[in-house]
């Protein structure tokens, strides 16, 4: 008889597979960025260096390096070459490369990106603060498991008591009644599974486009920006990224308004980025940079 795994086993396998693919994507991005950063730091001809680094291997990393080298030989700037040759390039990396080209600080930006990728890789194996989304996922999966119990386990539990002609304790009846009301949640989840799983995987792996955000990016950022706690997390993350790019821009000798304009290239929450663009317009209009609009102030400003 063919054994069909339970939904929980399938979910665990899916989570493990997604975790493997995310780690693989991170490793590929780290290798590509590190190779490009090292080639620029050593003043090597970039296209030739990437072609040599790709060698004759057919693994994903070598193929991507050769593709980028080919685009560079066609006259594309590095940012365009990376985005066209590397469809899975994380959006924040592409945005940082664009900003680095604008301020003529590409080696420093690539070094910063490389350092951030290495830091993220190390944090994967260390205890770290819990993302606010973890609480929502915990509530969701708790409801899923309990509603599944109400569908498959508690009816059998009641049958066992009746077969022994024993009364079910009142506290058990109360719990079974509460969980029984959750059974529609379980069936709704199972019915939507063929849609939600592919959509979820697509949202996890699709690269963002900071310069031309799509509808799903606006919807996702709207939800994250307006959820309690998660909105604060998004603002703090945006402040950190924006402050780092402003520091690089000002160190390169750019004016404050030009440095603020460069922030549009990096991958920030779209609603926080809208506040930064308003700050840029106010600075261009003559307002002192030390007086940003509410919600756009950076730490130390």
Query: Hey, roughly how much beta strand do the residues contain?
Result: under 5%
Provide the gyration radius in Å. 25 Å
Determine the fraction of residues in helical runs and give it as a percent range: over 70%
Distance between the termini: 68 Å
Q: Helix-strand pattern, N to C?
A: HHHHHHHHHHHHHH
Structural class by secondary-structure content: mainly alpha
Q: Pick out the low-confidence regions.
A: 1-5
* Rough outline: elongated
Key attributes of the depicted protein:
301 residues, mainly alpha, elongated, disordered N terminus
Account of the protein in words:
- It is a single chain.
- With 301 residues, this protein is an all-alpha fold.
- The chain has 14 helices and no strands.
- It is elongated.
